[in-house]
Design a protein that fits this description.
The chain is mainly α and 456 residues long. The protein has 5 domains: 2-28 and 168-210, no CATH class; 50-143, Orthogonal Bundle (Cytochrome Bc1 Complex, Chain D, domain 2), CATH 1.10.760.10; 218-249; 267-400, no CATH class; 407-454, no CATH class. Helix content is 51%, strand content 2%. The protein has 22 helices and 4 strands. The protein has a two-stranded parallel ribbon. Strand 3 and strand 4 (349-350) form a beta hairpin. Helix 1 packs antiparallel against helix 9 (171-202), helix 2 crosses helix 7 and helix 15 packs across helix 16 (327-341). The chain starts with a strand and ends with a helix. GO terms for molecular function: electron transfer activity; heme binding; metal ion binding. The chain crosses the membrane at residues 173-192, 227-248. Residues 1-30 form the signal peptide.
């Protein structure tokens, strides 16, 4: 019989087919670059600057007024046109009212006194520093109703469909056809390979791989080598012990834990955009072991007036459409707060029908470890971000640090004690600085590594 080497014709043919396939796909999947529409949108000129009016409204009016609902004062949407049509009052009356409302009331103005009585004689703050131009801007903002998205006309829908279909056939159909063709090529090559093998056997040709002498299996050769077996067993045992130790050291370590809360609270919006001090909400961190979860009345200190989220166009918290964090989403979470605390937006009063909010705890130390927030926050002056990370950047609060014993010990070894303004530490510092021969003492040198400090 003849012996011919197996030249693996199947692999060569398969490689050529792949090259042809890639060359075929490239021109079909190329897309035309869309041409951007360069037409500019015309902005109608109004009597006032609505953009500046929005800033003035938020600064001076938003505490008591909203555009589309009653608060401490009436709704102000289209207030100029409504007063003109319903009461016959012109812009000069608004100038006088905004700059000095008590004076208008004392003058005996009928509508001013009616409004004053309707809102329980709540005096409106006078704004004598606002110019007529500023008031024009505010009125322009109150008159600028949010533009609704126009419904697409039938012709627009057809045009969009024509644009979509301008390439003839969708990319999905083209790719599906290419996959089918490639699959058929693979099947054909397999059939050709089997046919060639049968022809070779019929002509008495034996491939080298079929005539090769049988060799000892690798697993049998490995089992017969006792030294190699011993080394492998030692490596496996040491590796298993290493990974088992690492796994056990992670028990109770929840770094990165970020549970979903019943009411979405964005630290990025509150602490980041609005610069709210951490200890305004977590006030017990100054005087207590626990930092505490703020009660809902703390939230309502602001959200009696802040009933919707309008965003911060110039800040980091722009609408995150990809993750669903839109203005409507945040406003919906404020409504959840109102439902939980029992707040009626229409009457601006509590109904008494409140529901507890079951917050999910994030940071949780084991029972045998003692930690006091006031000792670190008030006495040591440790910043919240030292342990909790960049909270002002967190949309969803998560555990930033591992909170393990080793992590605490490292901090005690590296952190110098704050002795300024604390007579007790000044006395201890004077004694121990001589003993250790150092200028600054760390928490560890003051006994911060003693077991009884945290475990008792």
């Amino acid at each position: 019989m003849k012996k011919v080497p197996n030249r693996n014709q199947f692999s060569k043919i398969l490689g050529l087919s792949l090259i042809v396939f890639l060359l075929f796909v490239s021109p079909l999947t190329a897309q035309d670059t869309p041409v951007a529409d360069a037409s500019a949108t015309e902005v109608a000129a109004g009597a006032g600057d609505a953009k500046n009016g929005k800033a003035l409204f938020n600064q001076n009016c938003a505490a008591c007024h909203a555009l589309n609902r009653k608060m401490t004062g009436p709704a102000l949407e289209n207030v100029e046109s409504r007063l003109s049509e319903d009461e016959g009052l012109d812009k000069d009356w608004l100038y006088a009212w905004i700059k000095n409302s008590p004076g208008v009331i004392k003058s005996g103005d009928a509508y001013a006194n009616k409004l004053y009585a309707e809102y329980n004689q709540a005096a409106m703050t006078a704004f004598p520093t606002l110019s007529n131009s500023d008031i024009d801007d505010i009125l322009a903002y109150t008159a600028a109703a949010p533009a609704a998205a126009p419904a697409p006309a039938a012709g627009d829908v057809q045009a969009a469909a024509a644009t979509t279909g301008s390439s003839g056939v969708s990319n999905e159909i083209i790719l599906g056809a290419l996959v089918l063709v490639f699959g058929l090529l693979v099947v054909m090559l397999l059939l050709v390979n089997k046919t060639l093998q049968r022809i070779a056997q019929a002509n008495g040709i034996v491939l080298e791989k079929d005539n090769a002498a049988k060799r000892t299996p690798i697993w049998k050769a490995f089992a017969q080598n006792q030294f190699l077996v011993l080394v492998t067993a030692i490596i496996l045992l040491l590796g298993s012990a290493y990974f088992a130790y690492g796994w056990m050291m992670q028990v109770g370590v929840d770094q990165g834990y970020a549970p979903i809360q019943p009411i979405h609270y964005s630290h990025k919006v509150h602490a980041g955009d609005n610069k709210i001090e951490c200890k305004y909400c977590h006030s017990s961190a100054r005087v207590s072991k626990h930092s505490g979860i703020p009660s809902l009345n703390v939230c309502m200190n602001c959200h009696k007036s802040v009933y919707e989220y309008t965003g911060n166009p110039e800040g980091p918290s722009q609408e995150d459409l990809e993750n669903g964090y839109t203005n409507e989403f945040y406003t919906g979470e404020i409504k959840k707060l109102y439902k939980a605390v029992g707040w009626d937006e229409e009457t601006q009063s509590y109904t008494g029908d409140s529901q507890p909010v079951e917050w999910v705890r994030i940071h949780n130390l084991p029972d045998f470890a003692y930690f006091n927030h006031s000792q670190h926050v008030s006495v040591a002056g440790v910043e919240c971000q030292t342990c909790h990370g960049p909270v002002e950047e967190m949309e969803i609060m998560y555990q930033y640090s591992p909170l393990t014993m080793g992590w605490c010990i490292d901090c005690h070894r590296e952190t110098n004690v704050k002795v300024e303004g604390n007579e007790y530490y000044e006395k201890i510092h004077a004694e121990l600085s001589k003993k250790y021969g150092v200028e600054n003492l760390t928490a560890a040198q003051l006994g911060g590594l003693e077991c009884g400090k945290c475990h008792y």
